[in-house]
């Protein structure tokens, strides 16, 4: 029996223009009415994610949610737990390689997002979420000064840029797709599945009682490891392969509602 839903946001619950459809909202409300917990599990920075949790408009703000790709558990009152920070020597080694290649990036640490190169593709993609309650993206002179860093974020606009980002490899870390035109580097054990294990403890449910919904490479571990893994129709092929069930509707076609109505309710 499913007792908790964990939903990715971008390209899964959210439409391409970053809305929550009424059909998806009504399906989630029906789950809540049956006593099923609903949480979001996103790669977004937690303050950005909270803006979309409010947009869902189902009173989920006080619920613990999984943010930063498995790096934080939080609600509107603040961060409840931070997981997966880089050991300092690994962070320094990865950052050195990034600088050698000459790549711009963002670094997140659960508290803010930092950058040291102003002109970069991320400025137009990974920007302040509309409705966020505070600023959280800041310039910094030296990324080595970031305390407890947990994630490097990159954007690419060509196959050449993608190949350069993929060159950055270091033992103990993982370099992966975080959505269309985005890549991230984290410690290998910082992922949504490990974060969901902590969420399960908070809610008093078993991992086998969780259904998760996703579309991207950063959803694969939770799609494989949760009780039920659902991929929307627009999901990447590797995410579809990891899921137990692939829906027939995309994120722009009430894809979450389609899955919930057939397999949860």
From TrEMBL:
One of its GO terms (cellular component) is cytosol. It comes from the Bacteria. One of its GO terms (molecular function) is magnesium ion binding. Gene3D superfamilies: 3.30.1240.10, HAD superfamily/HAD-like (3.40.50.1000). Pfam families: Hydrolase_3. This is Cof subfamily of IIB subfamily of haloacid dehalogenase superfamily/HAD-superfamily hydrolase, subfamily IIB.
